[in-house]
Amino acid sequence: MELNEIYAPVQEDLIKVKKSLTSISRIDYQWLSEQLSFLVRETGKALRPALTLLSGKCFKYNLTYLMPMSVSVELMHTATLVHDDAIDNALTRRGRATINSIWGDEIAILMGDYLFAKAGEAVADTQSPRVIKLFSQTLGTISSGEINQFRGAFDIKQSRENYFHRIYGKTASLFSLSTQSGAILSEAPEESVAIMKEYGDNLGIAFQIVDDILDFTSTEEAMGKPVGSDLIQGTLTLPAIMLAERYPEDNPVQKTFETKDTKYVAKAIDMVRNSDIIDECFKTASEYCEKACHNLRSLPDTASRQSLYDLADFVLVREV
Amino acid sequence: MELNEIYAPVQEDLIKVKKSLTSISRIDYQWLSEQLSFLVRETGKALRPALTLLSGKCFKYNLTYLMPMSVSVELMHTATLVHDDAIDNALTRRGRATINSIWGDEIAILMGDYLFAKAGEAVADTQSPRVIKLFSQTLGTISSGEINQFRGAFDIKQSRENYFHRIYGKTASLFSLSTQSGAILSEAPEESVAIMKEYGDNLGIAFQIVDDILDFTSTEEAMGKPVGSDLIQGTLTLPAIMLAERYPEDNPVQKTFETKDTKYVAKAIDMVRNSDIIDECFKTASEYCEKACHNLRSLPDTASRQSLYDLADFVLVREV
């Protein structure tokens, strides 16, 4: 199923969200304005705003609040990417040059801050102190999770538990904010908010596991960044953990981390591809998708609820 | 008058704010926790929380909301300093090594983000969408102002207007948030909120002018960072603008910017000190302090109002 079909119940409003994101760039500084319009136009799959709208549409859908919320989650996502790229010295993202590679780390830091501010302004328009608090807590979870990842880089001895903790912080927490806020702003009963949290938490983890798989199985052309980027950055992902478990000594992950020599990256990719590790990882991702959807049946039977089921399937088959 | 005396009407609550700032560091990551407690303990003059509390105390003082607000403005201030130091490659601040100099730019970026998140959580506790919106707008003003400053670095041709615009963004906007939020959260009438905004705007500009004077007249020992830091960073401040105006050709500011050779910094400092430029700058700062206080007489006659007058005097005579 294509993403467009899955988004059908909220497609029109998602277009409004994208337009609103573009208008964010109408600001004082002409120079900044140009760069920002370039940045926010690149909203990619717009998965997080779609989650907010679809979650909201399961209940009393009110675009007055859901629109700024959807804008807010995408802006927060974009802001974290801008900072991440500066931290990782990444040269490309989605096939385009990163902000830091064009204008330097200084502008990347400040532009990320500016986008956080705009995200904060948008979430303030929801008029919901509960959602605003959740928004800030999520930013705290993301940044402390990133600190954890950065500090643990090139450390082969990290546990699976640590991995899941890290990917919750860096990815699932924002998915969870997206779905919960949609439900809260649409006056969902508390049990339903909890179900939407469970959905966001688990879908986010599944999404990140698949991201980590694609870093081994995809192509630079499809991803818009080099294959094996995680290993090069020293980030220990699930396929790499499994490889290390199977070859506890002299495995190419350990060698990459020890020597930072990229020749071992190709070897690691090759070994992962020629094993059942990818299948095992997909199995794990699939289990998280099942957990995500486990209680959705308690929600009102709507087209939006069906889209949430379909999104969980999509996450497992996506190629970028 | 000492700062302690000026703060007297809110001194006890200011201690609570500082304790609360220290408790922010009780978080998941032990390593991060240690660094944060080090960071937030350094609250310096705590001018911004004091402004919030004093502004609030002119009206219906309610610590339930003023406490998180005071914590929030100091956290936002600290977060911007952490990012600024990374951008400027600053080695010391307040006589201590900066986060970026100890742990690198990456951790500085993420720790700044984390502090923004904590500031956001605190402001959410005010339960006031208006104040929360103002908070985010202020962060936007600060970061776009910093972008402007960074882009304009080493450009001798910046106007005074540009200078005042820049220092509004980087300093006065947060003073203004501090005073306005204090008034709003204490149910001040709209005219009084406007007076507190006028006070914060103008006090902030005066404060920054004095900061820029001290960069020429103070000592490394007193400031905890090298004298002439602004010139070295390429930041054109009011004393430097005046020097450039008086010696339009071959002035040491221009030479510093062109050659980035620090020998001209000493020359510029010497020339500024041996002129009436410092007096002229103090005169300008003093005018902003007068503007700040101009309408305070319309506020209720309280000890806190007197403190606001006294703070405006203090800003002009402070040595660090």
List key phrases describing it.
mainly alpha, homodimer, Farnesyl Diphosphate Synthase, 2 strands, 320 residues
Explain the overall architecture.
Chain A is mainly α and 320 residues long. The first copy, chain A, has a single domain, classed as Farnesyl Diphosphate Synthase. Chain A is built from 16 helices and two strands. The longest helix of chain A has 28 residues, at 190-217. The interface between A and B is large, with 45 and 45 residues.
Low-confidence stretches of chain A: none
Mean pLDDT figure of chain A: 91
CATH T-level fold name of chain A: Farnesyl Diphosphate Synthase
The total tally of domains of chain A equals 1
What is the terminal-to-terminal distance of chain A?
A: 14 Å
Total of DSSP H or I helical runs spanning 4+ residues of chain A: 16
Largest sheet of chain A: 2 strands, antiparallel
Q: How many β strands of chain A by DSSP?
A: 2
CATH superfamily of chain A: Farnesyl Diphosphate Synthase
| Spatial order of the strands forming the largest sheet of chain A | 1-2
